[in-house]
Write a structure and sequence with these properties.
4-stranded mixed beta sheet, alpha/beta, Rossmann fold, 26% helix, 445 residues, disordered C terminus
Length: 445
């Protein structure tokens, strides 16, 4: 399916000089929810941070981020016609993916839940990388499809800028989570540009074949980015749900029905059936294809009240069709000749796989009740969000494919991950040059 065997030019990289002038530029690419979003009034130009923020988070999110998908343009557009969503490009793109709530309070508290690429940026700077010369970031509007023109053009512009600023050196990409799907789409749709500007790709925690448990439940009941007491200060699960139903990026991370799973992921529902004579309770199961019918029925009455108007938000078949096109784009992606690909995936954490609603004693009668219930998961090994089975199934000839015992967000602060990144970038002088043979490594051992 995929090609591209890594050859000599990527090996034996020299170590960096102290001033960072002898390293190839690095571009960091965030994943779902991993970029700061600003809301801007079209007339007055005033910008407000709407993701991530602590104070008035839920209220501001509802007013300025809630959106609907426009099948004519392919973009998800805010319900407020007077505002637009922007991603700040300060600090050469690094600001948007560093600390997601960079307020003074969060920095003083060192609230690590919002520290995204911060530790990795610090590590790379200490290795000699310089912001704006050899270190760049790419944050983007993660509501949109991973192959939408604006995101593709933005990545192309960023690659060109990094290439030029470093004196014509090829760029090494480090992506996290859904950012890997974005890179795949770019590599597929703009292969010549990718070949021209990119030398290596270090992919971290990418849902290559989907994230079944988390994504299925996101479409049905929402997504909680922060657990425990702190969740009261963030956007609520239900508020996030009403956005995600209209996000192409979410549909693009549904379980790939064509992938040969060890066991197909399922949605299960304890269902109550009543007739005039008797009542029965059955456990119904839905695979990746059958789940579409469940989504349609469960979300048929889903709506929100926006500025006094009711907005219907059923399961969006236009987005599903678009997402199927994205899956084909990803399938067609091929590594350029002489290109080096590395894959880091998380293990040792219970990761949602199958998701179940209702119980034998409290069954679901009408499927729309699912949207107001809490899920029960069955778990597999992974990083807590992406199953290891999906994250390691890249389909490429990887130079190294490494399992690290780390959570989905924690992997960006993990010291073992940093050691591998330094080694592959050629900036750790203590690491010997590795051989040209492709191998699989389990860092946990």
């Amino acid at each position: 399916m995929f090609g591209g065997l890594c050859s000599c030019p990527c090996f034996g990289e020299r170590s960096s000089d102290a001033d960072g002038s002898d390293v190839d530029p690095v571009l960091l690419i965030s994943g779902m929810g991993g970029s700061i979003l600003h809301s801007k009034k079209k007339k007055f130009g005033f910008e407000t941070r709407v993701w991530v923020r602590i104070l008035l988070a839920d209220l501001e999110f509802k007013k300025k981020v809630w959106s609907v998908y426009n099948p004519t343009t392919g973009y998800t557009e805010t319900l407020d016609d007077d505002t637009e969503i922007l991603v700040p490009d300060d600090d050469y793109g690094l600001y948007a993916i560093d600390i997601l709530d960079p307020s003074l309070v969060m920095k003083l508290l060192h609230f690590t839940e919002v520290y995204h690429f911060h530790a990795m940026i610090d590590m790379l700077v200490k290795c000699g990388y310089k912001k704006g010369t050899t270190l760049f970031g790419y944050g983007y509007d993660f509501r949109q499809s991973n192959r939408i023109d604006k995101l593709m053009e933005g990545l192309k512009t960023k690659l060109k800028a990094a290439h030029q600023a470093s004196g014509g050196r090829k760029v090494n990409i480090i992506s996290h989570s859904m950012g890997g799907l974005l890179v795949l789409c770019f590599m597929s749709l703009h292969n010549e540009v990718f070949s021209k500007y990119v030398n290596k790709w270090i992919c971290i925690a990418c849902p290559f074949q989907g994230a079944p448990g988390c994504i299925n439940d996101s479409l049905l009941t929402g997504l909680q980015f922060v657990e425990g007491f702190e969740s009261f200060f963030f956007v609520s699960r239900w508020t996030m749900h009403q956005l995600l139903v209209e996000c192409p990026s979410i549909y693009e991370m549904l379980a790939n029905p064509e992938f040969n799973w060890k066991k197909q992921p399922e949605i299960q529902v304890w269902r109550k059936h009543s007739t005039d004579e008797e009542t029965s309770v059955d456990l119904e199961s839905y695979g990746p294809i059958e789940s579409i019918t469940l989504f349609e029925e469960a979300l048929r009455d889903n709506e929100l009240n926006y500025d006094g108007k009711m907005v219907a938000l059923p399961f969006n078949f236009e987005i599903l069709k678009w997402a199927a096109g994205t899956r084909q784009v990803i399938y067609d992606a091929k590594l350029p000749d002489g290109f080096c690909f590395y894959n880091i995936y998380g293990t040792s954490f219970d990761t949602p796989f199958d998701v179940c609603y209702g119980s034998e004693t409290s069954p679901i009668e009408d499927l729309s009740e699912i949207c107001h219930s809490m899920p029960q998961y069955s778990y597999v090994d992974g990083d807590g969000t992406v199953p290891a089975e999906s994250a390691k199934a890249d389909g490429f000839d990887a130079v190294e494919r490494v399992a690290v015992a780390a959570s989905h967000r924690g992997v960006l602060q993990d010291k073992t991950v940093f050691k591998y990144v330094q080694k592959w970038l050629g900036v750790d002088q203590k690491v010997r040059k590795h051989s040209k043979s492709s191998r699989v490594v389990d860092a946990s051992t």
